[in-house]
Amino acid sequence: MKDIIRYGNERLLAMQKTAFLASGTIAPDVVLRCYDWATDEHEGCVVSGFSSKLEQDVLHFLLKGKTPVIMVLARRMYREIPEELKVPLEHGRLLIISTSTAIRQSRATALARNRYICELADYIMMVGVTEDSSLYGLQKEFGDKPT
């Protein structure tokens, strides 16, 4: 990807990275397990687009903890950093990566972003993936990475 822009602590890229990707529809018991996972301390950092509802919830929990985070946008970089991201940026716990110059996220830019996340990660955690999910192809392609 040639349009990549980074903002924040680029040293996080050298850490062990666990990707967290979630489908839009998740069973309630899986949601609760993901919340528990997000509140635990993790080796390395967590990388995600934090786009789906569950991913956004996980980001909220991660930002309250100490685990470093890499947020990958499927659109152009923020013009103004959202308030909840400012403190983690100041403390060196966050890197924001933009993988597109598009004004808004689209299905195509989200797929490209999720592929980038899978390529970047050492470990991949995908939840709620079914054959109808946009993550299904990536799960088949990157299924050899540990979870």
Q: What Rg, in angstroms, do the CA atoms define?
A: 14 Å
Which class of secondary structure composition applies to the elements? alpha/beta
Largest sheet: 6 strands, mixed
Number of strands: 6
Beta-strand percentage range: 15-25%
* Anisotropy-based shape: globular
Helix content: 25-40%
Spans where pLDDT lies below 50 across 5 or more residues: none
- The whole-number mean of residue pLDDT values reads 91
Oligomer: single chain
Report the end-to-end length measured between terminal Cα atoms.
25 Å
Q: Helix and strand string, N-terminal first?
A: EEHEHEHEHEH
* Number of helices, where a helix is a run of at least 4 consecutive DSSP H or I residues: 5
Give the neighbour order of strands across the main sheet.
1-5-4-3-2-6
